[in-house]
Write a structure and sequence with these properties.
143 residues; alpha/beta; Rossmann fold; five-stranded parallel sheet; 4 helices
Length: 143
Amino acid sequence: MPGIVVGVDGSGHSRMALERAANEAAVHQAPLTVLTVHQAVRDVYGSVSHYQDDATLTDKAKEAAQAETDQVLAALGSRPASVTVTAVHGLPADELIKASQGADMLVLGRRGQGGFARLVMGSVTNQVVQHAHCAVLIVPPAE
């Protein structure tokens, strides 16, 4: 996926990442890929489990990501070269790392401090930063 890839999950943090990624893609006339991941669970052997409703839930996640992307693009002055919204079923960190292969930049929102005040980034963001194949931009929450 050349260009800019942004991970979205419907949270306020990912909305800010989407806004930033769309703006960067528009300024640089780069393709934008919006990626949402329907969360899978690991089975007792550590593999990704698959359930009957996964495809339906993945489609719903894509619809939500498309609606959010449309809202963000409508508020943007200029548009990226192209925009693709993709949804996959899997483990978010694994899928984002995979999407970083061949990308110019991966954009993610940083989780708030939540219940663990010492953690600045969420576990998915932290894993992706450690293993991404391209530059990673972490968008901090609005203060």
